[in-house]
Amino acid sequence: MENSIKKLTHFDSDGKAIMVDVSDKKISNREAVASGQIIVNKIVYEAILNGTVEKGDVLGVARIAGIMAAKKTFEMIPLCHPLPLTNCKIDFNLLPEKNIVEAIATVKTTALTGVEMEALHAVSVALLTIYDMCKALDKSMEIQNIHLDMKIGGKSGRYDRAKG
User: Fold this and answer.
1) Using the 8-state DSSP alphabet, how is residue 26 labeled?
2) Which CATH number fits domain 22-163: 3.40.50.450, 3.30.70.640, 3.40.50.740, 2.60.40.2250?
3) pTM (two decimals)
4) Mind telling me the catalytic residues?
Protein backbone atom coordinates (compact mmCIF):
# COMPACT_ATOMS: atom_id res chain seq x y z
CA MET A 1 0.00 0.00 0.00
CA GLU A 2 2.74 2.43 0.94
CA ASN A 3 4.49 1.96 -2.43
CA SER A 4 1.28 2.73 -4.32
CA ILE A 5 0.70 5.90 -2.29
CA LYS A 6 4.21 7.17 -3.12
CA LYS A 7 3.43 6.82 -6.83
CA LEU A 8 0.31 8.97 -6.63
CA THR A 9 1.07 12.65 -7.15
CA HIS A 10 -1.61 14.00 -4.81
CA PHE A 11 -0.04 12.48 -1.70
CA ASP A 12 3.11 13.47 0.14
CA SER A 13 5.62 11.01 1.61
CA ASP A 14 3.45 10.67 4.74
CA GLY A 15 0.33 9.84 2.71
CA LYS A 16 -1.35 13.22 3.25
CA ALA A 17 -3.33 14.79 0.41
CA ILE A 18 -1.54 17.70 -1.25
CA MET A 19 -1.86 19.96 -4.25
CA VAL A 20 0.82 18.96 -6.78
CA ASP A 21 3.57 21.54 -7.22
CA VAL A 22 3.62 22.24 -10.97
CA SER A 23 5.99 25.21 -10.82
CA ASP A 24 8.86 23.22 -12.42
CA LYS A 25 6.73 21.99 -15.32
CA LYS A 26 6.94 23.52 -18.77
CA ILE A 27 4.06 25.48 -20.24
CA SER A 28 2.65 23.56 -23.19
CA ASN A 29 -0.47 23.25 -25.28
CA ARG A 30 -2.80 20.76 -23.67
CA GLU A 31 -6.08 19.27 -24.75
CA ALA A 32 -8.45 16.68 -23.33
CA VAL A 33 -11.59 15.04 -24.68
CA ALA A 34 -14.08 13.28 -22.42
CA SER A 35 -17.47 11.77 -23.09
CA GLY A 36 -20.44 10.21 -21.38
CA GLN A 37 -24.03 9.25 -22.01
CA ILE A 38 -27.50 9.59 -20.60
CA ILE A 39 -30.10 6.94 -21.36
CA VAL A 40 -33.62 8.38 -21.52
CA ASN A 41 -37.00 6.95 -22.41
CA LYS A 42 -38.57 7.42 -25.85
CA ILE A 43 -40.76 10.34 -24.68
CA VAL A 44 -37.76 12.28 -23.34
CA TYR A 45 -35.66 11.48 -26.39
CA GLU A 46 -38.38 12.77 -28.74
CA ALA A 47 -38.92 15.88 -26.59
CA ILE A 48 -35.17 16.70 -26.69
CA LEU A 49 -35.02 16.02 -30.43
CA ASN A 50 -38.11 18.14 -31.19
CA GLY A 51 -37.30 20.93 -28.72
CA THR A 52 -40.54 20.45 -26.78
CA VAL A 53 -39.19 20.09 -23.23
CA GLU A 54 -41.10 22.61 -21.14
CA LYS A 55 -37.95 24.03 -19.51
CA GLY A 56 -36.49 25.03 -22.89
CA ASP A 57 -33.58 24.14 -25.15
CA VAL A 58 -32.15 21.14 -23.30
CA LEU A 59 -28.96 20.71 -25.30
CA GLY A 60 -28.30 24.46 -25.50
CA VAL A 61 -28.58 24.84 -21.73
CA ALA A 62 -26.54 21.65 -21.15
CA ARG A 63 -23.81 23.00 -23.46
CA ILE A 64 -23.55 26.25 -21.46
CA ALA A 65 -23.61 24.32 -18.16
CA GLY A 66 -20.77 22.10 -19.37
CA ILE A 67 -18.66 25.07 -20.42
CA MET A 68 -19.28 26.78 -17.08
CA ALA A 69 -18.34 23.56 -15.25
CA ALA A 70 -15.03 23.30 -17.13
CA LYS A 71 -14.18 26.88 -16.16
CA LYS A 72 -14.93 26.23 -12.48
CA THR A 73 -13.47 22.74 -12.05
CA PHE A 74 -10.85 23.96 -9.56
CA GLU A 75 -13.68 25.20 -7.32
CA MET A 76 -15.31 21.75 -7.16
CA ILE A 77 -12.38 19.31 -7.24
CA PRO A 78 -10.26 20.18 -4.19
CA LEU A 79 -6.75 19.59 -5.56
CA CYS A 80 -7.20 20.90 -9.12
CA HIS A 81 -5.27 23.95 -10.22
CA PRO A 82 -7.15 26.94 -11.65
CA LEU A 83 -6.39 26.99 -15.37
CA PRO A 84 -6.79 29.62 -18.07
CA LEU A 85 -8.89 27.70 -20.59
CA THR A 86 -8.31 28.71 -24.19
CA ASN A 87 -11.28 26.74 -25.52
CA CYS A 88 -14.12 24.53 -24.34
CA LYS A 89 -16.53 22.87 -26.71
CA ILE A 90 -19.47 20.61 -25.81
CA ASP A 91 -21.00 18.50 -28.55
CA PHE A 92 -23.87 16.03 -28.47
CA ASN A 93 -24.52 12.86 -30.44
CA LEU A 94 -28.09 11.62 -30.51
CA LEU A 95 -28.35 7.83 -30.68
CA PRO A 96 -32.01 7.11 -31.52
CA GLU A 97 -31.74 3.32 -31.61
CA LYS A 98 -30.93 3.34 -27.87
CA ASN A 99 -32.56 6.63 -26.74
CA ILE A 100 -29.14 7.90 -25.69
CA VAL A 101 -27.70 11.39 -25.69
CA GLU A 102 -23.90 11.38 -25.71
CA ALA A 103 -22.01 14.45 -24.51
CA ILE A 104 -18.46 15.11 -25.69
CA ALA A 105 -16.30 17.83 -24.12
CA THR A 106 -13.11 19.12 -25.71
CA VAL A 107 -11.08 21.44 -23.49
CA LYS A 108 -7.84 23.25 -24.33
CA THR A 109 -5.29 25.33 -22.46
CA THR A 110 -1.71 26.50 -22.65
CA ALA A 111 -0.53 25.88 -19.12
CA LEU A 112 1.66 23.96 -16.68
CA THR A 113 -0.84 21.14 -16.16
CA GLY A 114 -3.51 19.33 -18.15
CA VAL A 115 -7.25 19.71 -18.58
CA GLU A 116 -8.48 16.13 -18.12
CA MET A 117 -10.50 16.99 -15.03
CA GLU A 118 -12.04 19.99 -16.75
CA ALA A 119 -13.24 17.81 -19.64
CA LEU A 120 -14.63 15.13 -17.30
CA HIS A 121 -16.33 17.75 -15.14
CA ALA A 122 -17.85 19.44 -18.20
CA VAL A 123 -19.35 16.15 -19.45
CA SER A 124 -20.71 15.28 -16.01
CA VAL A 125 -22.44 18.63 -15.54
CA ALA A 126 -23.80 18.68 -19.10
CA LEU A 127 -25.39 15.26 -18.52
CA LEU A 128 -26.71 16.27 -15.08
CA THR A 129 -28.27 19.34 -16.70
CA ILE A 130 -30.08 17.14 -19.21
CA TYR A 131 -31.37 15.07 -16.30
CA ASP A 132 -32.49 18.17 -14.43
CA MET A 133 -34.32 19.65 -17.40
CA CYS A 134 -36.11 16.37 -18.22
CA LYS A 135 -36.78 14.83 -14.81
CA ALA A 136 -40.44 15.86 -14.88
CA LEU A 137 -40.87 13.51 -17.85
CA ASP A 138 -38.73 10.62 -16.58
CA LYS A 139 -36.92 10.15 -13.28
CA SER A 140 -35.39 6.83 -14.38
CA MET A 141 -32.80 8.37 -16.73
CA GLU A 142 -29.35 6.88 -16.29
CA ILE A 143 -25.98 8.59 -16.69
CA GLN A 144 -23.21 6.21 -17.72
CA ASN A 145 -19.80 5.73 -19.33
CA ILE A 146 -18.16 9.02 -18.32
CA HIS A 147 -14.51 8.68 -19.27
CA LEU A 148 -11.44 10.35 -20.73
CA ASP A 149 -11.16 9.61 -24.46
CA MET A 150 -7.95 11.46 -25.28
CA LYS A 151 -5.42 13.89 -23.90
CA ILE A 152 -2.34 15.55 -25.37
CA GLY A 153 0.46 17.63 -23.91
CA GLY A 154 2.67 17.50 -20.90
CA LYS A 155 5.40 15.07 -19.90
CA SER A 156 3.27 11.96 -20.44
CA GLY A 157 2.40 12.99 -24.01
CA ARG A 158 -0.63 11.58 -25.77
CA TYR A 159 -3.22 9.19 -24.38
CA ASP A 160 -5.91 7.61 -26.56
CA ARG A 161 -8.47 5.43 -24.81
CA ALA A 162 -9.25 3.68 -28.11
CA LYS A 163 -5.62 2.57 -28.36
CA GLY A 164 -5.42 1.39 -24.74
Assistant:
1) P
2) 3.30.70.640
3) 0.91
4) 132
